[in-house]
Design brief:
With 457 residues, the protein is an alpha+beta fold. The protein contains 13 helices and 23 strands. The strands form seven sheets. It has a seven-stranded mixed β-sheet. A five-stranded mixed β-sheet has the order 20-19-21-22-23, sandwiched between helices. Strands 5-4-6 form a three-stranded antiparallel β-sheet. Strand 22 and strand 23 form a beta hairpin. Bound molecules: glycyl-adenosine-5'-phosphate (GAP). The site of glycyl-adenosine-5'-phosphate (GAP) has 20 residues, from strand 10, strand 13, strand 16 and helix 9.
Length: 457
């Protein structure tokens, strides 16, 4: 399994999907850059989410809130007080760890995903770095990145990079509800960067300090919240399956009571069977009750209620929150799509081919045009075919190396269709379209190419 992660990480770097940030300076742990193919795939994930959560629904609207919000937001939300992880330091090598990541520790409740620890030295956890068995007592380490607004670096100017996008939706609830003239139930969705000063980032793009979230706050009448929670759990699980994640690699898990975030009445995680852990959180779907609206009302002095005209009642809506990570979703899609297969060669032998069997909507490049060779007559024809497809889909043109090698290059980045222009094309005005997974080839007229691809993409 570790080999699988190594293979995926190596492929991601070699093909410009994701690679370490600032590498010429030795990299910066937990910071990764998305290259030309990675940025396309990441955008496809976000587009698929936005399409399903906003575009295809008439009860959800979008938002792009500021990353740096008033520091009062984090006081009200509870993040300043409880958004912490238990930090311990090895007394021998002085390396620092998240206590709940060391076997034998169990930490108190915090507002952070996956916390389930309180101190239990009985089992004598040992330092993963040097093996020593003595640590400092756990101390709560706040995960928010702190900086200063303006030129004076003092406490009165302290601000924070948001650790979740969700608070934008809570503080803007009344403005958006009135501007968009929405009745309950309705949701506000946002995709954007969040920042957490994780003690132990790692596992490639699984746990980062700078990452992207796709979150939606769905405001409902109290009393209908549990039903809506079930609804969103089903919807969100289905989203991953519809985009190609194998069902056996997904599961739903209810948070234990002591694991629940400070704002949550019930949280269910969608988990994926990542190669480096048994099961890892992909997305959390929480019933946040009216906690956040009430807290912001208390701290801001502004009323954050909803007037139900039919019932002639004013109340604080309850909130159901599906909260997903873009980077984690990308890692799950990559892991699930990665295959190494025996494939037949043109000469009748077999060879290994590496394949990313990505859903067509997620594939970074949908169509690549390949002239059989760099022959003077073929290249302009192939360029014309490329000009036909590129306005319709993210496409590529590749004329370097043997045709077999070029097919393999496209397979390993998940391109669903390759279009080959050969010498017969010049006579019969036909091209060969090869499908990635079946490797089946169809010969068809250039005039029908866009229609043929449209049916399949
Ligand atoms: N607003 C609720 C919230 O932020 P969360 O479970 O802490 O809940 C939601 O985060 C999702 O964001 C997670 O399921 C995960 O996909 C992603 N996420 C959280 N912390 C992350 C990190 N350090 N690196 C990458 N993704 C992260």
């Amino acid at each position: 399994m570790a080999d699988l992660m190594e293979a995926i990480t190596a492929l991601a770097k070699r093909r410009g999907i994701v690679f370490p940030s600032s590498e010429i300076y030795g990299g910066l742990r937990s910071s990764w850059d998305y290259g030309p193919l990675g940025v396309e795939m990441k955008r496809n994930i976000k587009d698929a989410w936005w399409r399903s959560m906003v575009q295809l629904r008439d009860d959800v609207v979008g938002l792009d809130a500021a990353i740096i919000m008033s520091p009062k937001v984090w006081e009200a939300s509870g993040h300043l007080e409880v958004f912490t992880d238990p930090l311990v330091e090895c007394l021998n090598c002085h390396q620092r760890f998240r206590a709940d990541h060391l076997p034998g520790f169990h930490a108190p409740q915090s507002g952070h995903e996956e916390d389930e620890t309180t101190l239990d030295m009985g089992h004598g956890p040992s330092c993963p770095n040097c093996g020593h068995r003595e640590f400092t007592d756990p101390r709560n380490f706040n995960l928010m990145f702190k900086t200063h607004m303006g030129p004076v670096e003092d406490e009165t100017n302290a601000v924070y990079l948001r650790p979740e996008t969700a608070q934008g939706m809570f503080v803007d609830f009344v403005t958006i509800q009135q501007a968009a003239r929405r009745k309950l139930p309705f949701g506000i969705a946002q995709i954007g960067k969040s920042f957490r000063n994780e003690i132990t980032p790692g596992n490639f793009i699984y746990r980062l300090r700078e990452f992207e979230q796709m979150e939606m706050e769905f405001f409902v009448e109290p009393g209908t919240d549990e039903e809506w929670h079930e609804y969103w759990i089903g919807e969100r699980r289905r989203w991953y399956v519809d985009l190609g994640i194998r069902e056996e690699n997904l599961r739903l898990r209810d948070h234990e009571r002591e694991e629940l975030s400070h704002y949550s009445k019930r949280t269910v995680d969608v988990e994926y069977r990542f190669p480096f852990t048994d099961w890892g959180e992909l997305e959390g779907i929480a019933n946040r009750t009216d906690y956040d609206l009430r807290k912001h009302e208390e701290f801001s002095g502004q009323e954050l209620t909803y007037f139900d005209q039919e019932k002639e009642e004013r109340y604080h809506p309850y909130v159901i929150e599906p909260a997903a990570g873009v980077d984690r979703a990308m890692l799950a899609f990559l892991c699930d799509a990665y295959r190494v297969e025996e494939a037949r060669t043109a000469s009748g032998g077999t060879e290994k081919r590496t394949l990313l069997a990505l859903h067509k909507d997620l594939a970074p490049i949908k169509v690549t045009v390949l002239p059989l060779s760099r022959n003077e007559a073929l290249v302009p024809e192939a360029r014309r075919v490329f000009d036909l497809v590129k306005p319709c889909w993210m496409s590529d043109y590749d004329d370097a190396g043997s045709i077999g090698r070029r097919y393999r290059r496209q397979d390993e980045v998940g391109t669903p269709f390759c279009v080959t222009v050969d010498f017969d094309t010049l006579e019969d005005r036909q091209v060969t379209v090869r499908e990635r997974d079946s490797m089946q080839q169809d010969r068809l007229p250039i005039d029908g190419l866009v229609g043929y691809l449209q049916e399949r993409l």
